[in-house]
Write a structure and sequence with these properties.
Spore Coat Polysaccharide Biosynthesis Protein SpsA, Chain A, 18% strand, 346 residues, ten-stranded mixed sheet, globular, alpha/beta, 2 domains
Length: 346
C-alpha cells in the first residue's frame, strides 16, 4: 500500500541562532508541540554549543530542523530560512525571544482554516510584548482600533497608525510566497535589518488579518543587545545603512500609484519612525560628526525625491527632530525619553 505523502507544514518558524546556547532552549520549548509547525533553526556559524543543542532537539522532535552555515549575520540567517521554508506562512523568532504556546495554536488554527478555504491573507498580524528584563510591567504592542479583529481586510479598511504604533518583525506572519515573490534579500553582516523585513515585503501585501493575541515575547534589557542605546550608537553606521535602504524603497513606493494609498501612507509612517530613531541616536551621541550625519541623512532623502522629502519632513515627529540649536536637541531628546518610559523599547 502506497503511503500518503506528508502534508506540508502550515507555518514555518525561522529561528536565526548565533552563540545562543544559553537561551535557545527556552525559545524552542515555546515552539514545539504545535501541530503543523515546522521549526527551522539556522545556526549562523556559532562557536558555542548552539549547533549541538539544536541537533539534540531535532533528534527528539521531528518538527525541528537544523541548517548550519558560515556566519552571515541575522539577515543572512533569515534569508536562508526563507529559502528553505516549506510552510504556507513564515514567522521569524529570534533565539533570545519566545512565543506564547496558546497564542501560537490560535495562529496555526487560523492558518489551517485559510488553507481549507483555499485562500487566506497575505499577512497575519498579532501582538507582541516588550518583555524587558527586570520590569514589573510588560507593555503589549497591540493593534485594536487600527485593524478589525479576526477578519481579512485591505489596507483601505485599516485605520491610520498613530505615532506609537507600527508593525515590527515580531508582529508579522507573512505568506511565504509574498516574501519570495518580493525578491528582497536582507543585507548580511548588518544589524537592524528586521526593519527592512517589516518594510520592503509589505509592498506586495494586499490583505491582512489581525488576530488579537499576545503571541511574541520580545526580550530586551541585556547590555550586549543590539537595541541597547550605547550599542546602537556604536553601530550607528549600520542603522543608517538600513535607514537609507528604507528611503530607497519609500521613494519607489511613494510614486507607485498601483500601490494602495493607505499602504503608501503606512510606509511613510514607518520610515519616519526609523528615521527618528536614527536621528535620536545621533543627537544622543552629540558629537559634531554625528550631528552632521543627521543632516546628511535628510539631505540624502531630498536628493532622491524633493517632493517626497517635503512630505516626509512635514510631520511633528520629524520637525521635533530637526529643531535648531542645543535647545532644540534637548526638546527632541526629552520627547524620546518620555516615549521610552511609555514603551520601554531600549
Amino acid at each position: 500500500m502506497t503511503k500518503a505523502p506528508a502534508e506540508a507544514p502550515l507555518l514555518t518558524v525561522v529561528v536565526p541562532a548565533y552563540n545562543s546556547e544559553s537561551y535557545l532552549e527556552h525559545c524552542l520549548d515555546s515552539l514545539i508541540g504545535s501541530d503543523g509547525v515546522e521549526i527551522l533553526v539556522v545556526n549562523d556559524g556559532s562557536k558555542d554549543g548552539t549547533e549541538q543543542l539544536a541537533a539534540d532537539y531535532a533528534k527528539s522532535h521531528p518538527q525541528v530542523k537544523v541548517i548550519s552555515q558560515p556566519n552571515k549575520g541575522h539577515g543572512g540567517a533569515v534569508n536562508t530560512g526563507i529559502a528553505a521554508a516549506q510552510g504556507d506562512y513564515i514567522k521569524v523568532v529570534d533565539s533570545d525571544d519566545w512565543l506564547d504556546a496558546q497564542a501560537l495554536d490560535t495562529l496555526v488554527t487560523a492558518i489551517r482554516a485559510a488553507r481549507a478555504a483555499g485562500g487566506g491573507p497575505d499577512l497575519f498580524v498579532t501582538n507582541f510584548l516588550y518583555d524587558r528584563q527586570g520590569a514589573t510591567h510588560i507593555h503589549s504592542m497591540q493593534y485594536r482600533g487600527i485593524l478589525p479583529g479576526s477578519k481579512q481586510v485591505t489596507w483601505e479598511q485599516a485605520k491610520r497608525f498613530p505615532t506609537g504604533k507600527y508593525l515590527l518583525m515580531h508582529s508579522l506572519t507573512y505568506r511565504t510566497s509574498i516574501l519570495r515573490d518580493s525578491g528582497f534579500a536582507l543585507p548580511e553582516h548588518t544589524f537592524y535589518v528586521d526593519n527592512i523585513y517589516a518594510f520592503t515585503p509589505l509592498r506586495g501585501v494586499r490583505t491582512l488579518s489581525y488576530i488579537d493575541v499576545d503571541l511574541y515575547h520580545y526580550f530586551i534589557g541585556r547590555p550586549d543587545q543590539s537595541v541597547n542605546e550605547s550599542v546602537m550608537i556604536s553601530r550607528i553606521e549600520q542603522q543608517l545603512r538600513v535607514n537609507r535602504i528604507m528611503f530607497d524603497v519609500l521613494a519607489q513606493s511613494w510614486n507607485d500609484r498601483a500601490l494602495p494609498g493607505a499602504l503608501r501612507q503606512y510606509l511613510m509612517h514607518y520610515a519616519r519612525i526609523v528615521t527618528c530613531i536614527s536621528g535620536i541616536m545621533l543627537l544622543r551621541s552629540g558629537t559634531p560628526e554625528h550631528l552632521a550625519k543627521k543632516d546628511e541623512l535628510f539631505a540624502d532623502l531630498r536628493q532622491r525625491d524633493a517632493a517626497l522629502a517635503r512630505d516626509f519632513e512635514n510631520a511633528l515627529l520629524i520637525r521635533m527632530l530637526n529643531l535648531p540649536g542645543k535647545a532644540g536637541r534637548r526638546i527632541a531628546l526629552a520627547g524620546y525619553t518620555l516615549a521610552n518610559r511609555k514603551y520601554g523599547f531600549n
